[in-house]
Amino acid sequence: MSETAVPTGPSNGMSRREELLAVATKLFAARGYHGTRMDDVADAVGLNKATVYHYYASKSLILYDIYKGAADFTVDALHDDPSASARETIYHFTRRLLVGISSDIERAAVYFQEAPYITEWFTEEQVAYIREKETQVYEHVRDVIDRGIASGEFYECDSHVLALGYIGMTLGSYRWLRPHGRRTAQEIAVEFSTALLRGLIRDEAVRHDSPLGADQADARSGG
Amino acid sequence: MSETAVPTGPSNGMSRREELLAVATKLFAARGYHGTRMDDVADAVGLNKATVYHYYASKSLILYDIYKGAADFTVDALHDDPSASARETIYHFTRRLLVGISSDIERAAVYFQEAPYITEWFTEEQVAYIREKETQVYEHVRDVIDRGIASGEFYECDSHVLALGYIGMTLGSYRWLRPHGRRTAQEIAVEFSTALLRGLIRDEAVRHDSPLGADQADARSGG
Best of A191, A203, A204 to disrupt the B interface by mutation (most B CBs within 10 Å)? Predict the structure, then answer.
């Protein structure tokens, strides 16, 4: 990976495009997309603007790469093992989401901070792609809650409203989650899932002893 | 309130300053603070720019008025009846918050959308005022959860993490809450509080019969 004559080359195994994306993500998170110019990105990454445009023909394509990465990651974090209980499915999704968010807080911040304005910057096809992923995530959570209600695992509740509340609680954690904070992302996932699932689970013994499902013991020890 | 010769005057009981604030809030919510100019505000409210500057000497003072209004509202919504149970306190706070947010979605949207950047626009004193209110809200929620744990009303849990999760779940609802949506803000408060409090309450009978506290019946009927 060494690029002897190029002092601005990446030094940590990232491709130059990845490095550019990482630097732009940090700038967008701190100053906003609207408040960051391509010149700022070029300066921060130590490339001239022509080289930046070689990798990304426009600033909005950088933003779209950030968005697509975050949306694809969230969909990939969905747990679709049909043999798992509803509580296990929710717990595992929460864990993957929080660990993922804590590994790239800036990406999550850009995603949520720019959300009200993306129709200004993205093409219709790009917006449609993001909306489709968001719908998949929402419907997955709602359907898991519905499955838990149907099987008697969960109380009757409004799965639509609770799915939205759950998404706000977990994804909104980018505001305060820190990779080296007092509690790890894994521990926070256990706290959130335990409280939320204890609120949904009907059976008193399950609720008390294993609200996160069969692999509760692993979860508590961080496995 | 009639102002016969002034066609641009307010017509709905709002003072001109209030009208200006409401119009600016809508613009900031849709385009972002950075993407809205004082000219846009003047045009939208139908005043010349000098008149706008008479009410607000700078754009950042409009933003601060929006921020202060939202922060003061949230602190006022704290329920400080010391005789109430922890579950009642949380339920009433949730209800007031969601009803308040649904009555002014744009204000909540501006508050959260601009949060990462306010140190750029506000004076140190202004930032300190907002941060103090936010700390009051966070500490109130954490303390109520701690009170519930201490009295045996709630399970042991990490009140810090759950207070942050609760705030994300309730305040984050501005993203999808609609004043005339399928469910009212009051109904959503009941759904959120029931799920969250059922997750915290230890006692099986309380949890099943009255997770929102003594005035549960009122709550369900929207009172």
Answer: A191
Model ipTM? 0.86
CB contact under 8 A, B196 and A196: yes
| Nearest CA distance, A191 vs chain B (angstrom) | 7
Domains contained in chain B, CATH given: 16-57 (1.10.10.60), 60-220 (1.10.357.10)
Q: Which residue of B has its CA nearest to A161?
A: B188
Cβ atoms < 10 Å from Cβ of B31: 16
Minimum CA–CA partner of B161 in chain A: A188
Q: How far is B113 from chain A (nearest CA, A)?
A: 6
Q: Per-residue pLDDT tens, chain B, 223 aa: give them.
A: 444 444 444 556 789 999 999 999 999 999 999 999 999 999 999 999 999 999 999 999 999 999 999 999 999 999 778 889 999 999 999 999 999 999 999 999 999 999 999 999 999 999 999 999 999 999 999 999 999 999 999 999 999 999 999 999 999 999 999 888 899 999 999 999 999 999 999 998 998 889 998 765 455 444 3
Distance CA A23, CA A107 (A): 11
Indicate the burial class of A148 (C-beta count within 10 angstroms; 0-12, 13-18, 19 or more). buried
Comparing CA positions, the residue from B194, B163, B213 lying closest to residue A161 is B194
Q: Pick the residue from chain B with its C-alpha nearest to A203.
A: B204
Helix (H, G, I), strand (E, B) or coil at B154: strand
Question: Nearest C-alpha of chain B: how many angstroms from A177?
Answer: 10
